[in-house]
Amino acid sequence: MATVKIKRYKTMLNHRIEEILKANGRPLFPTENLNGLLPDMYDLASFESERLYEYALKDRERRSVMELICALKRIDEGVYGICEDCGKPISEKRLLVAPAAKQCIECKAESEKRERVEKIRRTHSQYGIQLGEPPGGN
Fold first, then answer.
1. CATH of the domain at 43
2. What is the pLDDT of residues 31-87, one digit of tens each?
3. Which of 17, 22, 58, 130 is most enclosed, with most CB atoms within 10 A?
């Protein structure tokens, strides 16, 4: 990949990391002034639900930052923009939309297809259903 493009991607990756970290400045536990009153159980349930949502959001943000940092590392290693599965270049359109992408669109689609099939298999086996078996178990 050309040096100019590498610099552009590096800048874009760093910018996205900064955006996430700036947005991440929200406190995890809101500091609400309850004027010395203890909240009732509905307020506590609402607070707990909001807190769990915040945890999920923070975890998602953390994973995104880690993926972007790994992409920066791939730039330094000279393998950024190359599919980890097939070794072909990842399209620029894909890198602009998903700058931390490790797979080309074809390999990513195949990977997602395998994941869906595996999820279906796990779900079916959880209920004792064998795939490929006709309904009714003749």
1. 1.20.120.910
2. 555 555 556 787 778 888 888 988 888 899 999 999 999 999 999 999 999 999 999
3. 17
